[in-house]
Amino acid sequence: MKGIKKSVVYRHLKKCHDDIGGYTGTDIVKLAQQLNVDRTTLSRSIEKWSEKDIRFSDIKYLGKRYIQITLDEILKIEHSLEDNPLMVKKYLLESTNANRIHNDMLPLLKTTFYEFVDKYFNSILNVVQYSIYLA
Q1: Which residues pair with 49 in a beta bridge?
Q2: Angle between helix 25-35 and helix 39-52 axes, rounded to 10 deg
């Protein structure tokens, strides 16, 4: 790619990955401004490199922007799911977002919330599956 140094982009994305577990659209915009290139061009370059270069494929895209989930929210969500694993997740999301808005925080996106819940359930299932294999 002319004008875009792959090594500079990789170092920046790797730093984001080390700091928060991946990179966001905001990170791409800031990097594009630093490199004086269009953000769309940079995004497309990263997509191509992700397909061909294993270093880039290991760095996760987190979405347009990074939204923190606080430890209290994680514990509340886990507690609610442990008490009632069949509960409608939509209501849990609504209650979590109501608390976030009350505390002047950005609401969680549906995709972020459901991804967290899916990872939570998968981790539980892996523990159960592992204990079955040990028995």
Answers
A1: none
A2: 110
Identify whether residues 31 and 82 lie together within a single domain.
Answer: no
Asked whether residue 1 is domain-assigned, the answer is: no
Beta bridge partners of 24: 63
Model pLDDT for residues 3-57, shown as the tens digit of each residue: 688 888 989 988 988 887 788 888 888 889 988 888 888 889 988 888 888 888 7
Residue 27: CB partners within 8 Å, gap ≥ 6?
12, 13, 16
For β-strands 23-24 and 61-63, DSSP reports them as: parallel
**pTM above threshold 0.70:** no
Closest of 28, 48, 47 to residue 38, by C-alpha: 28
Distance, CA of 13 to chain centre: 14
CA distance between the termini of the chain? 54
Express each pLDDT in 33-46 by its tens digit: 988 888 888 889 98
